[in-house]
Amino acid sequence: MTDVEVPSAGAVLDAPRLLLRPWVEADAPAMFPAFSDPEAMRHWNTPLVSSVVEVASAISRSRAASPDMHAAWLAVLKRDGRTVGFVNYHRRDVQGRCLDIGYLLARPFWGMGLATEAVSALLSHCFGPLGVLRAVARVHPDNVASLRLLARLGFQPLPASSRSEDAGDGLAAFALDVLDQARPDRRFP
Ligand SMILES: CC(C)(COP(=O)(O)OP(=O)(O)OC[C@H]1O[C@@H](n2cnc3c(N)ncnc32)[C@H](O)[C@@H]1OP(=O)(O)O)[C@@H](O)C(=O)NCCC(=O)NCCS
Fold first, then answer.
1. Which residues contact 53 (CB under 8 A, 6 or more apart)?
2. What is the C-alpha separation between 13 and 3, in angstroms, rounded?
3. Within a domain: residue 5?
4. Beta carbons of 37 and 55 less than 8 angstroms apart
5. 147 CA: nearest ligand 1 atom
6. How far apart are CA 81 and CA 128, in angstroms?
7. How many angstroms separate the alpha carbon of residue 118 from the centre of ligand 1?
8. Does residue 147 fall inside a structural domain?
9. Burial degree of 74 (CB within 10 A; 0-12, 13-18, 19+)
10. Is there a domain that residue 7 lies in?
11. Residue 115 buriedness (CB in 10 A; 0-12 / 13-18 / 19+)
12. For residue 49, what are the domain limits?
C-alpha cells in the first residue's frame, strides 16, 4: 500500500483494475525498479536511472510542466495499491487538439492487460475532458509489445514524420483519432 500524500489538483483516472493519479516526488522509490530496468527501458527515450533521487528529479520536472504541454499519472493496482507503472501525454498542442502519449509498466506487471487498461483510461481523459482530436504514439519498430498494444487500441500507422525534430529518431508514429474510437475492432476493456 502507498502512504504517499497526493495533491487534490489533477484528474484521477479510473480503470477496471487500476487507479491512475498524478505522480508526486514521493513515488520515486516505487518507480525506481522500472526506470532502472534495462529491459523495460530498452526502447524508452531517456537513459537508465541509477538512483531514486534521479527518478524524483524527473518527476519534479514532469510536475513543473504546464498541463498544456505534459502531464503524467502513476498507475496503482486497486487491489493492493502496488505501483504498476505510469502513463503520460507530452507535446500537447492545445490549438491543434493533438498530443503524444507515453507508457511504461514495471516488468512483473507485463502481459496481464494492464497497459491496455491504463492507456485506455488516459485516452478517455484526452478525448473527453481535454478535447483532443488525435493521440499519437512513437514506437521503436522492435518494440513488439508496444506495437501490439497500439494495434489493440485501434492506432493506425502515420506516414513518416515531417517534423524536423523527429527526423532520424528511428521511431514509427501511430495515431488514434477521436472519430475512430467507436470502431468495432477497437478493444478497450
Ligand atoms: C509496452 C507495454 C506497456 C505493454 O504492457 P502490457 O501490460 O504487457 O500490455 P497488455 O498486457 O495490455 O497487452 C497489450 C498487447 O501487447 C501484447 N504483448 C504484451 N507483451 C508482449 C510481448 N512481450 N511480446 C509480444 N506481445 C506482447 C499483448 O499480447 C497484447 O496484444 P494482443 O491483444 O494482440 O494479444 C510494456 O511491455 C512496457 O512497459 N514496456 C516497456 C516500456 C515501453 O516500451 N513503453 C512504450 C514506449 S513506445
1. 28
2. 19
3. no
4. no
5. 16
6. 26
7. 12
8. yes
9. buried
10. no
11. buried
12. 13-186
Place of cell 541509477: 50
How, if at all, do strands 134-139 and 98-105 pair? parallel
Question: Ligand 1 pocket check: which of 149, 150, 152, 186 to mutate, most ligand atoms within 8 Å of Cβ?
Answer: 149
pLDDT of residue 4 exceeding 70: no
pLDDT, tens digit (0-9, with 9 covering 90-100), for 158-182? 987 656 567 667 899 999 998 887 6
What residues contact 179, with CB distance under 8 A and at least 6 apart? none
Tell me, what CATH number does 33's domain have? 3.40.630.30
- Which residue in 91, 102, 107 sits closest to 31, CA to CA? 107
Say how many Å lie between the CA of residue 54 and the centre of ligand 1. 26
**Residue given cell 500500500 in the structure block:** 1
Residue 1 has pLDDT above 60, yes or no: no
**What is the separation, in whole angstroms, between the first and last Cα of the chain?**
25
Judge residue 76's burial from the number of C-beta atoms within 10 Å of its C-beta, 0-12 exposed, 13-18 middle, 19 or more buried. Answer: buried
Give how many domains the chain has, as a whole number.
1
